[in-house]
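Batch manifest, entry 17 of 40.
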Amino acid sequence: MMNWKSILLFLWLGLNMVRLPAQILRVESVLASDSLMIGDQVAFSLRLESDPALSVRLPLLTDTLTAVLELVAHPGTDTVMREGRRVITDRYMLTSFEPGTHLIPALDVVYEFDGQTDTARSLPLFVRVHEPEVDTSQAIRAIRPPVNTPVSLEEVFPWMLLLLGISLAAGLAYYLIRRFLPGNRRGEGKDGMETEPAHVIAFRELDQLKEARLWEKGEVKRFYTRLTEISRQYIERQYGIPAMEQTSEEILNSFRRENRDDTLLDDMLRELLGMADLVKFAKEEPSAVENQSNLNAVYIFVQKTYPMFYAEKERKEDADATD
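Output type: structure tokens
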């Protein structure tokens, strides 16, 4: 029989001859932050640390992680050597337009070890998506009171001519559309068939505006001009309100007649149009936080109104069918 020294020697030799997969491969999912505002983006990466000789295959991620978590960019994959170990980092940008706490699922990495194929899996993560907080118990106030700065006629006159020209051109375009292409209202084509929905167009244009980062380039006025154009065009397509040729107050009155249930949406639209008018005509300069907040407000406005519109449309169609 072997004595205890022989047993210990045998165990020591066995431990030095066996290499466990856990010693040569480690996989983890990493978030730059565990929370974000709705519509914002956060860095997400899959990090792999392994023996340099190990053959690995990363998971193929497309444009979505789950039904509510989207991958909007893939900056690339980095590989570095650190203390004799290979570290691979696969980087992505993650966003969501659904508030709440969402699960980032575990991700599988396939590898070959000693001629055998196996799978290593990262731990799942949670990310919290926040909505802007609105205190509905308080009275509605302007984002910031108007700044009383003197404006000379020389400064105003070119803008008056420009606004007059834009109004005439918009009126003529609207008349021609109504006169010759009446079916184009509310997302209908010339033959009466539905084309792209208004909210799909609005989300795409908001994404393009967000990526442009105009306020970071000092083009704050251009940013708010485009933001209000997207809002007006969405209201016109969705509700048939001629928002492109109406004043801010007329738009609010028209929208209030269409939206009788949720007054918070009226308040959101009033604040957005009010800030845009201050920037364009009173030379207001909002902060970067206010710019981002107003962009998010339009995302939320579109997200909350289009289901209400289609629900009301179906209710009217059911009522007509019953009659």
